[in-house]
Amino acid sequence: MKCISMFAETFKDRIRQEYEDWMLHGEHELTAGRNPRPPPTTIDLEWIVKAWDSIPKEAISKSFKTCGVANAVDGSEDNEIHCFKPGGPVPTGRNLLKQARAEKQIIELMEEIDLAEDENNNVYDSEG
């Protein structure tokens, strides 16, 4: 699931509404064949800004957490990741991520212990 897909429908609906309002009430230039020209780029951009502003910031933030992009690195928000939920594509993902974090912590602790032992034994890097 892409993060933007969480609110894309709302965004598109708002732009569609703006376009329909413009078609009904806006001023239109006509082509030589008497067809309406598309709206000017400045109007398109206004619609985009209005559509973006209509999406609650919490919805945007939640969408990134649901996709696992902006979650707390300590794992406290892993339950919000959509694909890790029961019935999701990777229901064991939360446990796998927890295990990977634990393994990383162990490696980091071992490296710290090695550095401390080297310092205690007066072992120095040949470059230092």
From TrEMBL:
Keywords: Coiled coil. Residues 99-126 form a coiled coil. It comes from the Eukaryota. This is DDE-1 domain-containing protein. It comes from Acrobeloides nanus. The lineage of its organism: Eukaryota, Metazoa, Ecdysozoa, Nematoda, Chromadorea.
